[in-house]
Specification:
By secondary structure, this protein is mostly beta strands. It has no helices and 23 strands.
Length: 316
C-alpha cells in the first residue's frame, strides 16, 4: 500500500460531516475518510478529533476532544476492504469521579513501556493510563501517580504532570506532549510560552527547554526530526517554527514568521520528499518547507480545506 497522509480537522457542531480523519495521497489528492463511521456504535459521536497515534499493538488511537465526549477511541490498525479503520472500542473515557483528568483532550503519546499519555486542555495536565498490553493494570485505566507527586495533593487519578493549580511549576495551558529520543516527556505550555521537560516514569520536572526569550510565543505542536537530533516547535504567537538542537541545546528560527503564508501553525510531520509538512490552521492549508533550510515550497501542498486542519501523519 502506498503511503498516504492522515489529517484531522477541528470539526464541531456546524461541521459534523468533517469529524473524521481525512486521507490524502502524497500528491495532495483527497481520497477518503480514514475511520469507518458505520462501525461506530450508537452513543459514540466523533466530535472535534485531535491527535492520533498508532499504539504498540498497531491499533489506531484517536482523541475525541469535544467536552461531553472527552475520550480516546481505539480503531483497528488493519484496514477493512474499503481502506478504512473499523471501530474497536473506547479505550479511555472521562468520568466525573473515576477519571476527571481527561477533559477536552488534545493529543496522545505512548512511552517506551507502551503506556498511554493524554494531555487535556481544560484540566491543563498530562494523565497516564495503562497501555493496551496491560502488564501492571487494566488497559485504559488511570495509572498510579509517579514518585515525583505528593499523594496528598488530591490530584485527578492518573495525573503524571499536574497543572499550575496544583503545584508551583505545573502546566498553565497544556497542548502537545511527546516523548523525545532521551525518553523524557516534552510538553508545550501555551500560556507559559515554554516547552517543559519531565523525566520519564518518575515525572520529575527537569527544566524548561525553551522560553519566551528564545522567541517562542504560545507553543502548541511539537515534532522530533527523523534523525532524532532536533525538536521542532510550532510558535503560534509568531506564526513560525523553531528548531531546537537536542545535542547542543540551541534554538533557532527554522521557518520565519508567516513564511509561505503560515497562519496558526498546527500539526507537523516529515514527508519522504525532503519536506516538512505543516498544517496552517487559520488559512486552511497544508504547507511544505525544505528540511535543510526551512524555505517554503512555491505553493501549498493542499489549499482551500473545508475546515481548520489540526494534526497530520504520513501513514503506510
Amino acid at each position: 500500500m502506498p503511503k498516504e497522509w492522515y489529517i484531522s480537522f477541528h470539526g464541531g457542531d456546524e461541521k459534523t460531516s468533517l469529524n473524521n480523519i481525512h486521507v490524502y495521497s502524497t500528491d495532495g489528492k483527497k481520497l477518503r475518510k480514514a475511520l469507518n463511521k458505520k462501525s461506530v456504535p450508537e452513543g459514540i459521536t466523533l466530535r472535534e478529533l485531535r491527535g492520533f497515534a498508532f499504539g504498540p499493538d498497531k491499533n489506531l488511537y484517536v482523541v475525541n476532544a469535544y467536552f461531553e465526549y472527552s475520550e480516546v477511541l481505539k480503531f483497528n490498525g488493519a484496514l477493512n476492504k474499503d481502506g478504512q479503520h473499523n471501530f474497536a472500542g473506547v479505550f479511555v473515557k472521562r468520568h466525573t469521579d473515576l477519571n476527571p483528568g481527561i477533559d477536552h483532550p488534545f493529543n496522545v503519546a505512548f512511552d517506551s513501556n507502551g503506556d498511554l499519555y493524554v494531555s487535556s486542555q481544560n484540566t491543563s495536565l498530562v494523565a497516564r493510563y495503562h497501555g493496551p498490553a496491560g502488564k501492571s493494570g487494566q488497559p485504559g485505566l488511570p495509572m498510579p501517580f509517579p514518585q515525583s507527586l505528593d499523594p496528598d495533593l488530591n490530584l485527578p487519578p492518573g495525573t503524571f504532570v499536574p497543572s499550575a493549580k496544583h503545584v508551583s511549576n505545573g502546566l498553565v495551558e497544556v497542548r502537545e506532549a511527546i516523548f523525545a529520543p532521551d525518553n523524557n516527556l516534552y510538553v508545550a505550555d501555551r500560556a507559559a510560552d515554554c516547552v517543559r521537560i519531565y523525566e520519564a516514569h518518575t515525572g520529575h520536572f527537569l527544566r524548561n527547554l525553551v522560553s519566551g526569550s528564545d522567541q517562542v510565543d504560545r507553543p502548541i505542536h511539537l515534532l522530533v526530526s527523523p534523525d532524532n537530533r532536533y525538536l521542532f516547535i510550532g510558535s503560534g504567537g509568531t506564526d513560525s517554527i523553531l528548531q531546537h538542537d537536542l545535542r547542543q541545546n540551541f534554538t533557532k528560527i527554522f521557518v520565519a514568521p508567516k513564511s509561505g503564508g503560515l497562519n496558526g501553525p498546527a500539526g507537523m510531520a516529515f514527508g519522504d520528499d525532503s519536506f516538512l509538512y505543516v498544517a496552517s490552521r487559520n488559512s486552511n492549508e497544508i504547507l511544505r518547507y525544505d528540511t535543510k533550510d526551512g524555505r517554503p515550497s512555491s505553493k501549498p501542498f493542499v489549499k482551500d480545506l473545508a475546515d481548520n486542519p489540526e494534526f497530520l501523519m504520513l501513514v503506510g
